[in-house]
Amino acid sequence: MAKEFELNEVEVWDGNYAASQALRQAQIDVVAAYPITPSTPIVEGYGAYVANGYVDGEFVMVESEHGAMSGCVGAAAAGGRVATATSSQGFALMVEVLYQASGMRLPIVLTVVNRALASPLNVRGDHSDMYLGRDSGWIQLDAYNPQEAYDLTLCAFRIGEHLDVRLPVMVHQDGFTTSHKAQNVTPLKDDVAYKFVGDYVPVNDMLDFSRPVTHGAQTEEDWHFEHKAKQHKALMDSRTVIDEVLAEFKELTGREYKRVETYYMEDAEVALVVLGSSVETAVIAAEELRAEGIKAGIVSPRCFRPFPYDLVRDALDVPSLKAVCCMDKSAPGGAMGALFNEISAAAYTTESRPLITNYIYGLGGRDFSIEEAKRIFKEQKAHADAGHITTPIQQFSGVRGPKLGFFETRRG
Amino acid sequence: MIEIRWHSRAGQGAVTGAKGLGSVVATTGKQVQAYALYGSAKRGAAMNAYNRIDDKPIRNQETKMFPDYVFVIDPALAFTDDITKNDKPETQYIITTHLSKEELISQIPALQDKVDRTYVVDCMQISLDTIGRAMPNTPILGAFMKVSKMYELDFFLDNMKKVLSKFPQRIIDANMEAITRAYNEVK
After folding, report:
1. CA-based nearest distance B59→chain A, Å
2. E-assigned strands of chain B?
3. What are the distances in angstroms from CA A250 to CA A45, A155, A166, A245, B143?
4. Is the ipTM of this structure higher than 0.85?
5. Which residue of B has its CA nearest to A285?
6. In order of start, what are the domains of chain B with their CATH numbers?
7. What superfamily would CATH give domain A11-208+219-253?
8. In this predicted model, what pLDDT tens digit does every residue of B79-129 receive, in sequence order?
9. Which chain B residue has the Cα nearest residue A282?
10. Closest approach of chain B CAs to the CA of A210, in angstroms?
11. pTM here?
12. What CATH class is the domain A261-406?
């Protein structure tokens, strides 16, 4: 029996420590891990809990992140509650196995501390790795601060392991900005947290020798498509389960999470759509601008996958809304930012059809300031006043060198 | 909102100090942030750590700040770092040095119009005498308590003991002595 960990009512934890405490409280059976900056302390913390008797689990050291996720797949198929953590290059090396995990419908939890992808080598936070996972068939939840990293990691087990879902879940937090920033965190007591997460219910576990099963079978054109269609439907249908689990978590803690978070959108004229810790900074900018008379709002798809197309549309279907800027913290590699594309698609089906522009920002951990958020809001106000987009549709925020911009509007 | 910027070298305990301060302040019901900019910095490299303290939840995730207090915990950084960066008219400076305040300020032009808001304390010597090695992170907090009048010394010491509780008693006692000395010696 694992020892209880003594916790204060309010702790000062960084995002990494918060996530590792959530993994401990969920009493994971197996963590197979290959540590990488900035997510190292998550698995380091779990290793310490195992060594000191706070978890009845196994810490499996492997030779690479590919091995780490492979170990997780094996342990999950065997019938255990499994989790690990990674970032950046480690995430990239896991990608092949991420698709295996979701295709095999294994509810593994992966805590991802978002970090830029090389080259050039960079350990700081942007959303390149989070975006790299977006077609992998995993549920992706996004935490903006350490409290949320803790809360959403607990929720991730409930969501992924739900018998109507059985899909792996990533919980994202921003490298350094969240992972290494200590803030007030109100944790649950061990027994309360475990009761919320619940006992692990194995499905088709390989260690049930009375009922032999095959995992990861080969299918060609005869069955592959049916499997993938079913997997996609499961991911789409997980939306209601996510809502239920988040509602239950609110019931327990008073802390409310939604698949799409909105701030000041009821009467907004201009809005930013943004992910991660930048949401927090943007909210302050919106509050300051409202004091100056600019009706600014924020929309953030906290649930990045399954993409909340319907809720994004609801959030943007505000009659007063004239101009929206989608902020992508990942190098778009010769396209518009992914968030811009997805938000635009949802907004296209609204009555209000706001003007939509795209900023690439924050790459490699470049600081995102309140001042810059306000400047971008004011630029949206200029679009709204002019009735058309007055700048190139895609621009770069906070980058040195000649001003970059791509594509002009044909509206207005 | 109170904002604090630490100027330190990696390995001098600025991150631990910032988190320790945050933990003590959080026990009084306030909201805190403690963070650092170091990433792949190696021991000895100049780095910054930061604290934010407020009565309401802290949303700002911007790294840059306009500090109310600047702690310089490595003596040489007062000369080589831009310690008055993003200065406000009321920013107060607490600097580790073996020099007198007058000697220090005479050598640092940026401080010459900030005489009345510059404080000096020799956290290096204090930590060598008490902890046994150059570890200026906890003594600077003693000096900060004196300058800011944030908490009574005894209250701060009691709470700092809890933060350090995983260390051997000998280390805790040495840190308490270091904090107390810096509190009494800061000028």
Report:
1. 5
2. 2-9, 31-37, 46-54, 69-72, 92-96, 118-121
3. 27, 11, 22, 9, 42
4. yes
5. B60
6. 2-185 (3.40.920.10)
7. Thiamin diphosphate (ThDP)-binding fold, Pyr/PP domains (3.40.50.970)
8. 999 999 999 999 999 999 999 999 999 999 999 999 999 999 999 999 999
9. B60
10. 48
11. 0.96
12. alpha beta
